[in-house]
Amino acid sequence: AQSVTQLGSHVSVSEGALVLLRCNYSSSVPPYLFWYVQYPNQGLQLLLKYTSAATLVKGINGFEAEFKKSETSFHLTKPSAHMSDAAEYFCAVSKPSGGYQKVTFGTGTKLQVIP
Amino acid sequence: GAGVSQSPSNKVTEKGKDVELRCDPISGHTALYWYRQSLGQGLEFLIYFQGNSAPDKSGLPSDRFSAERTGGSVSTLTIQRTQQEDSAVYLCASSLTGEKLFFGSGTQLSVL
Fold first, then answer.
1. Please, are residues A64 and A80 in contact by the beta-carbon 8 Å criterion?
2. Under an 8 A CB cutoff, do B33 and A103 touch?
3. Average pLDDT, chain B
4. Is A88 part of the contact surface with chain B (CB cutoff 8 Å)?
5. Do the Cβ atoms of B40 and B53 come closer than 8 Å?
6. How far is B40 from chain A (nearest CA, A)?
7. HSE (CB half, 13 Å, CA atoms) of A64?
8. With left for phi above 0 and alpha for psi between -120 and 50, is residue B99 left, alpha or beta?
9. How far apart are CA A88 and CA A74, in angstroms?
10. C-alpha closest to that of A53 among A45, A65, A71, A44
């Protein structure tokens, strides 16, 4: 079964500093990996996804993530944090198999941006 | 509609009562997911519908929970004999392929 582990339920960064949110996956086959973001009082939306093409994936709002098979990681980064990045971020994994894709989420990381 | 619609947005019920939560997916999306979001627990998978295939019910926490999807569209999640630990936000999502899930705003369930 696929699973993801997010290290750190809360992360605080200063405005303009690097954002690094960690995600490690467990999967018996090459997985699909995702980052979703939930802004305050809003629904979840897809930030970026890895589906076995380029290992460095760029998403919306300047975020990117790199798939590292040797480390079973898919960490989310942004070079310079903005106040509007304050939200909860969820890493997710699915097993690609002919149209059936159960998507499993991590426990989430709340990002606080300090002015 | 343009997005996934869930109703009600808030539901307060007494312990022991039954509740029904509704999800109206994006038109044409064959996949429909239910998740439960509790503080510190992330998104807990409950059930998944894909077209006419048998649903994946592996995440339902007990036999008090059930869900159906009528006509490949609207889905209803039913919780019987609600308990206080059922209090959470119940999220519905729909998708064409599973590569991108579109989420509704959720139903906040409070069991008193």
1. no
2. yes
3. 92
4. no
5. no
6. 7
7. 10
8. alpha
9. 16
10. A65
The three-point CA angle B78-B88-A39 to 5° equals: 120
Distance CA B86, CA B98 (A): 27
Output DSSP code: residue B102. E
Residue B15 tokens read as 């312990």
CA distance B78 to B94: 18
Q: What is the pLDDT of residues A55-112, one digit of tens each?
A: 899 999 999 999 999 999 999 999 999 999 999 999 999 876 555 578 889 999 999 9
Instruction: Please give, rounded to a whole number of angstroms, the shortest distance from the CA of A13 to a CA of chain B.
Output: 20
Mutate to test the interface with B, among A101, A104, A107, A110 (most CBs of B within 10 A): A101
Please check the confidence at residue B102 and state whether its pLDDT lies above 70. Answer: yes
| Closest Cα in chain A to B4 | A43
Cβ under 8 Å to A: B residues 37-96: 40-43, 45, 48, 50, 53, 56, 91, 93, 95
Q: Answer whether A95's CB lies under 8 Å from A102's CB.
A: yes
End-to-end CA distance of chain B: 33
Contacts of A10-14 spanning 24+ positions with Cβ under 8 A: A10/A109, A10/A110, A10/A112, A11/A109, A11/A110, A11/A111, A11/A112, A12/A111, A12/A112, A12/A113, A12/A114, A13/A81, A13/A111, A13/A112, A13/A113, A13/A114, A14/A81, A14/A113, A14/A114, A14/A115
